[in-house]
# Entry
Amino acid sequence: MRWSAMLCAGVFASTSCASAGAQILPSSAGDLMVQTVAKGLDHPWAIAFLPDGRMLVTERPGRMRIVAKDGGLSPALSGVPKVFAAGQGGLLDVALDRSFTQNRTIYFCYAEPVDGGARTALARARLSDEATPRLDAVGVIFRQAGPLSSANHFGCRIVQTPDDNLFLTLGEHFTTRDQAQNLGNDLGKIIRIRPDGSVPPDNPFAGKAGAKPEICGSRSTGRAAATRSTSSKRARITVGR
# Structure
């Protein structure tokens, strides 16, 4: 099925849209104007706003595109790794590095095919925004440890905090959901790593026998956000289903 991408109060939603005109929807926070900004995307999953107002969008089957302000779609960016595009798997979240304007670095999360199943993987790349945009210097910085998924519950939300560390939510793959309480694997966990994939030494389970040092918490979730505290190097991470 081909779905349209809609911009609603700063959030992409995938839906069928009969009209390109704006709609006004009431909410507890006030009226929201909903307007179609791009069509022809196949299961758009995540969006990252580029500094010039264009949008970097992932499509779950394994494509990443840039959406122009007028709704025009770039060709699919080359450099995206092969993804496990089945069930809830595919190319999922994308986020810009906090220093993107200087380093052009992005992070993206996807279901990586392995031996007939899949696991969550996090990669970083440099966005080359030329006539034909592409990803350069693509490298996987984290791979989920534990039993593989058949097609469900990958998690895959990325949050970068003011200290530049990355938080990533990881699913428990549904059939192995009891593993979320097992500190010896990454299923159903929230992890914290550096931008190069290494583990900060102040992680709560770093150095603990039998525990994966990247683990910061246990929660299978598809939503996450960071709220900066009064300290420039601290942030509150909020997660939910």
In short: The longest helix spans residues 100-103.
